[in-house]
Amino acid sequence: MALNHRLELRQGQGLVITPQLQQAIKLLQLSNIELDAFIEGELERNPLLQRDDRESETEREGEPERPTENLGLDSVSDAAASRENDAQPDDVSPGERATGDGAEAEQAGGQIDWSRAGTGGSFESDEGYERALSRDLTLREHLCEQLSVARLSPSQTVVAGVLVDAVDEGGYLRVDLEEVAERLGCDIGFVEGVLAVLQGFEPVGVFARDVRECLALQLKDQNRYDPAIAILLDNLELLARRDLPSLRRLCGVDDEDLREMIAEIRALTPRPGAAFHSDPAQTLVPDVHIREGLGGMWHVDLNSDTLPRVLVDQRYHARVSKGARSDQEKTFVSDCFASANWLVKSLDQRAKTILKVASEIVRQQDGFLAYGVEHLRPLNLKTVADAIGMHESTVSRVTSNKYVSTPRGVFELKYFFTAAIQSSEGGEAHSAASVRHKIKGLVEAEKREADVHSDDAIVEILKVAGVDIARRTVAKYREALRIPSSVERRRLIKESC
Question: Are 207 and 199 in contact (CB under 8 A)?
Fold first, then answer.
């Protein structure tokens, strides 16, 4: 068989996702906190981007920002087109000019800015020093302080350091001892010996591998660990179900002793590390505000505090474009300019898309805003996507990690998408969230043993109310709400009486 060469022409269609389009898609699903971090990185990478920290014209005049029209979709202005960049690239702060030694800075008339001095040295303010001293210790720092005075051998200290790093915020050890022994090339008994020393650290109960061991360590420290309470700790699942007869039989104690043992366990701390300082939780800032206007209309506004304001520095671009000589420099300036323009357009499109999706959700769920969760309608991504002329994947990205502030609280946009449960009377379907709310209300109304409803009874009650639901669905919703079974609820009511 002979091999030969030939030239052929073929015509086909293909979808190519450019890096710019990938960036625009990525921006849609970022939360406002993630978006701020992304913008900071772009500002450092691209010299032609500049943050616009100036106040808007309405803010300077002391007037409130113009709200969108009722359920409006076109209230986001194009910041890049409506603002001129009048920044002076040549302006340098005195602190930046004074980069030489003190004599040169003094001769130049500049002032040295000591505000950026590090944590060391004698130039820190008393306020910063006091803040460093008064800062709450983390659990790891607390354990390391105790480890430094534990008088362990060098090999024990190495093992202890690995175990300290494996402790979570609650104080539990989240590593397998055999894995540690294999990694460090030592005997498992040696690792267990080091762990026994670490379990004597404060707070009592730290370095436990499960809840039972944590509680046992605390009871041993109080000299209250005996065979009966050890059996009780081995059967915590029975205690969670309030199966007191079984616990009495297993522990071999009477009612009074069992009540005392349970009281002792309730006084313990299941998360000993929770009392220590941890990383601060991020503040939840809504992306959209919904407020009621005149005539029962709902106004949808973007939260201007979460919208990044970046501009393309046109003047600086003109300067560096004239100064670029080599092809590499010209290509770099051109790429930075195109990237900056695309980012500004992508941010503007992201804001418009969020507003459009939020406005449609308000149209669909106005009953919830006016009357509460029982009037939450079934809603899916396709319904919103078809209404605003977008793809379902776009709506899914927009509603991820986005929050809306309403008169009834702050909710994630995903909250308004709920499954449909058919009506037993053939009417409008009910949302899963409203059905869960009904189940929770029925359980909260139980005051006596006779009032406790089984899952089958809840099914019948809901059917009378027009909700066609299966028993297994009621059980699933009840477990999701962390509501005990009817047997456990009767037992709790009986004990409280």
Answer: yes
